[in-house]
Amino acid sequence: MNIPSAPATSLTTKDLKTDQDVRWCPGCGDYSILAQTHRTLPELGIPREKIVFISGIGCSSRFPYYTNTYGMHSIHGRATAIASGLKATRPDLSVWIITGDGDGLSIGGNHLIHLLRRNFDVNILLFNNQIYGLTKGQYSPTSEFKKLTKSTPYGSIDYPFNPVALALGADATFVARSMDVASKHLPEIIKRAHAHKGTSFVEIYQNCNIFNDGAFMVYTEKATQPDEALFLEHGKPLIFGANRDKGIRLNGFTPEVVNIQETGTSDLWIHDETDQVKAQILARFFDDPAKPNHLPRPFGVFYVQQRPTYEELLEEQIQSVTERLGEGDLDKLLRGKEVWEIK
Amino acid sequence: MQATVETKEAVVIKFAGDSGDGMQLTGSQFTNEIVLGGSDISTFPDFPAEIRAPQGTLAGVSGFQLHFGSREIYTPGDEYDVLVAMNAAALKVNIKRLKKGGILIANTSGFDSKNLRLAGYDKNPLQDEQLGNYTVYEMDVTRLTRECLEGLPLGTKEKDRSKNMFVLGFLFWMYNKTPDSTIRFLQEKFDKDPVVLEANIRSIQAGYNYGDTTETFTTRFAVAAANLEPGVYRNIMGNQATVLGLITASKKSGLPLFYGSYPITPASDILHMLARHKNFGVKTFQAEDEIAAICSAIGASFGGCLGVTGTSGPGMALKTEAMGLAVMLEIPLVIIDVQRGGPSTGLPTKTEQADLLQALYGRNSECPMPVVAASSPSDCFESVFEACRIAIQHMTPVIFLSDGYIANGSEPWKFPAAADIPEIKVTFARPNGQPFMPYQRDEKLSRPWAIPGTPGLEHRVGGLEKENITGNVSYDPDNHELMVKLREEKVQRIADYLPQQKIEIGPEKGKLLILGWGSTYGVIKSVVKDLYEQEGLPVAHVHLRYLKPFPTNLGRLLRNFEKVLIPEINNGQLIKVIRDQFLIPAIGYNRIRGVPITKTELKEKALEVLQS
Ligand SMILES: Cc1ncc(C[n+]2csc(CCOP(=O)(O)OP(=O)(O)O)c2C)c(N)n1
Ligand code: SF4
C-alpha cells in the first residue's frame, strides 16, 4: 500500500478503538492481531478518515466493528471484490481487507486470485486458523490432511492449500507470512504491506483456541520456535536454530539444512525478496513439522515485485482517452451519429 | 421499362439467412436508411445462441425483422410483406409468417442439394406449387455478387461475404432509398481496407442496378415519412438507450459512474458500449463473475460513486446474496437485468419477462427493493435514469428490468436536450458536531450517505442486523422487527415521490383494461388502438414502469374496469402480484415462446374476454 504520505497524524491507538464490545472467545489469536494493528496504524501516517477496513464473514471478519475507521463487514468471501470496486473508484483511500482461511480461500478463493493478479493497491490480512471458527469447527481449505473435525469425523481427505504458494501462483506482488503473537514481527510486516504499492498478501497464523488450539504452537512457543521458524530478512542468509547454528543452502533447486559450524556461512542461501524463483521454493517449505528432516517454516516477506496497479492503469486510460476524444459532451452523445427532423 | 411506384402505409420485412450471412448488419443498415427517411420503425433481431451453428441448418438461421410505416409503429409486426431467404433453411423457418400474396426473395444458390438436405426438404420448394400464394423473385445472389466483384483481388469466400450487400442494394431499389448512410457506415468500418470497402459498395450498387435494369420487377414501393411529433429523431436500440441513461444519470448527479459486469447475452453490449465512453469518466470493470461484479459496484457506491451492475437471468441469480447486503447497507446501487428465456441457461438469445418474481422476491428473508421496467428500446433511457434517481435519492438498491427484445430492438427516439433533463440532487453527509448516526432517517426514511474520506463520520456498516439509528450490530428481537418494517416502508414510501399511473389509451372506466409491463407495451398499444380508437370498444391500456412500489392510484384505476387482462411473456407473474395486492380476478394471457406476443393473438384474446 502506498498512500501519498500524509502529514503525521495525531491518530493514537486509543482513537482506533470503538465502543463495541469485542466478542471473540477469550484467548483467541484475533485479539492479538487487532492489538498489533491498532498499535501500528498510527505509525503509518494515514488520516483515520482515509482508512477503510472491509471484511467478509467469519470470526476474523468482525474486525472492522472494532476499529474506528470507515469499515464494512460484508458477505462471505466477497470482501476482495468489494474492495476492488472501492479502490478502482477511490484510489485516495487506504483499503484493508480482513479475511479468514475459509472466507478468503474457500468461498472467496476466486475473487482472491483475481484481486492478486490485477494488483489493486490494497492490503489483505488473511487470518489463517486452519479451521472454520464461526460455524463451530469444520475443517477449512488449509486444514491438514487427515484432520479430525466435526465434518470429518474419520479424517479429512481434502488436500490443503498452501496460501503463500497460491498467492505467488496468482502473481501477487507482495507475499508475506507472520503470526498473531509475533508482537514485533507482525507490526513490521503490516508496515511493509502498507509501504508496498500493489496488492499485499499477508498470511497470519492465528490460533483458534476453541476449535483448533495449538495448531501453530511449534512456531510460536519459545521452546520450539527457534528450530521450527525461519525468519526471512532481505539480503541476509537463511539461518535458524536455538543456537543460530543451522542454515539453508541450495543444492541445485533443492534446499538443504546445513550445520553452519561445519560448513561455514559462505554458501548459505541469501534471501532476495525480488527473486521469484527462490520465492516459489521458499513457499514450498511447507512440511508437516512432525516429519523427520523437515524444513523450517519461513516467516517474513517472501516476495516483492513492482508492477503498475489496476487503479493507476485505469486512471491513465481514462486520461489518455479523454485527451484524445475530448471531455464527453452529453448532447453529442444523446444525438448520436445520424438524426432526422420531422417538421 | 420503368417500374411503377406503389405507396404503402406500412411494410414488414424479414431478412433471414445463415448466421454467417450478415443478416443483422443488413437489417440494421436498412433500418438506418428507413429512419433517415422519417418513417416510424420497430425492429426485432432474432439470432441463434451458437456463434456459428452448422452452416445451412435450421438451427443456424439468423433473422432481422423490421416494420416501418408512415403511421406510428408499435411492434415489429406479426406477418411479413417481404421475406428475404438466403438459403433453404431460412425459408423453412420463416415461410409460415409470410403474408398470403407477400413477396419472397430467394437466393437460388442457397437452394442447392446440400442446402435442401440440411433444411430437410425432399425437393426444391422454389420449384414447388406450395409457393403459389406468393410472388417469388429468384435471384442467384451468389453468382451475381461474384460477377460484380470480378477483378477485385479477393478470394471467392471473401467475395461471398458481400452477398448481403447485394440484397441490401436490391431492397434499397425496391423501397426507393439511396444507400448514403450505409456507404458512410462502410467507409468508416473499412477505413483501413479499401478492397473490402470497394467490394461492399460495388455489391450494393450492383444490387440496386439489378432491380433497375432487370425487367422482372415491375413495382417499387414508397413509404412516406410518419406523422410523428415534430422534432429531431435518431434511431436507438434498448441497450444503447440504457447506456445513455446511465451516463446521463452520472452527469446529472455529478456522481462518477462505475459499471461492474460479467459478460452475458443479452446484457454484454451495455458493458461494451460503456467501455467506449471513458471520456465521460466512466469506469467499467469486467469482473471474474457476477458476484464480484455486483460486489465491486457495492464497493464503488460505498465510496460515493454511482455503482451499477448489469446481467441477465443466470447472473441475476448469482447476485442475490449481494443484493441483500446492499439492502442492509442502504446505499444506492442499480442492478440491470436484461431478461432472457430461462430457467438455467434457457434460451440465451430469446426474450422473456420471467424474472419479475425473482426481482421482486428472489432473495433470502424480507429484502425489499424497488423495481423499474422499460417498455420499449427508447424507454430504457428514461427508465434506467429513473432507477438511478430512485437509488440515489432514496438510498436503496434498485432493479432495472429490460429484456432481449427491447435490448436488441430499435425504434426512432426524439432524444432530449441535456439541459432539459432534471438534475439528481445528491447530498453527502457532513459532520454537524453531533455523534454520527448512520441509520438516522429523513422524511423519505432514507439514511445519510457518509463516504470514506469525510473526517468525523467514520462508521462501520455491514450485513448483520443494524440497531435503529446507531447502526450498531443488534440481535434484539424488537429492533429486528422494527428494521424489517422500516426497510419495507422506506421502499413503499417511494410511491409518494412517483408520478401517478396514466392510462395509455382508452376510457377511464370501462369493460376491459389491458395491464402490461415491459416489452409488451407495443403490442398492447396497437391492439387497444384498434379496439378502442377504431372499433369503439370500451378497452383501455395501462402500462407499468414502476413495479415496486406501484403508483398509489393503481388500485383505483384497476377497479374502474370490469375485467383486467394481463399479457406477459412468462407463466403469469405480474398477475400474481396484482391479485395479491388488489384482490381482483385478473385474467392472464401468457405466451412463453421466446418471441414477442403477436398482435393477432392478443387481439383475439382481448375480444374473447370482452365477449365473455
Ligand atoms: C454464503 C454463506 N455461506 C456460509 C456461511 C457460513 N459461514 C460463516 S463464516 C464461515 C467460515 C468461516 O471460516 P474462516 O473464514 O476460516 O473464518 P474464522 O471464523 O475461522 O475466522 C462460514 C462457512 C455464510 N455466512 N455465508
Ligand atoms: S471460535 Fe476460534 S477463531 Fe472464533 S473467536 Fe473463538 S477462538 Fe477465535
What does the model show?
Chain A is α/β, with parallel strands linked by helices. Chain A is 29% helix and 18% strand. In chain A, the strands form two sheets. In chain A, strands 2-1-3-4-6-5-11-7 form an eight-stranded mixed sheet, with helices on both faces. In chain A, strands 8-9-10 form a three-stranded antiparallel sheet. The model of chain B has no long low-confidence stretch (mean pLDDT 95). Chain B is globular and about 85 Å long. Chain B is of the alpha/beta class. Chain B has a seven-stranded mixed sheet with strand order 11-10-12-13-15-14-20, with helices on both faces. The longest helix of chain B has 20 residues, at 194-213. The chains are: A alpha/beta (343), B alpha/beta (612). At the A-B interface, strand 2, helix 2, helix 4, helix 11 and helix 12 of A face helix 1, strand 9, helix 9, helix 11 and helix 12 of B. Strand 2 (70-73) of chain A pairs parallel with strand 17 of chain B. Bound molecules: thiamine diphosphate and iron/sulfur cluster. Residues 57-60, 76, 100-103, 127, 129, 131-135, 140 of chain A line the site of thiamine diphosphate.
Q: How much helix, percentage-wise, in residues of chain A?
A: 25-40%
Biggest sheet overview of chain B: 7 strands, mixed
Treating each run of at least 4 consecutive H or I residues as one helix, how many helices of chain B? Answer: 20
- Tell me the total number of β-strands of chain B: 22
Secondary-structure element pattern of chain A, one letter each = HEEHEHHEHEHEHHEEEEHHEHHE
The main sheet of chain A orders its strands as: 2-1-3-4-6-5-11-7
Q: Kindly estimate the percentage of residues of chain A that lie in beta strands according to DSSP.
A: 15-25%
Q: Rounded to an integer, what's the Rg of chain B over CA atoms?
A: 26 Å
Mean pLDDT of chain A: 96
Q: State the helix count of chain A.
A: 12
Q: What's the count of strands of chain A?
A: 12
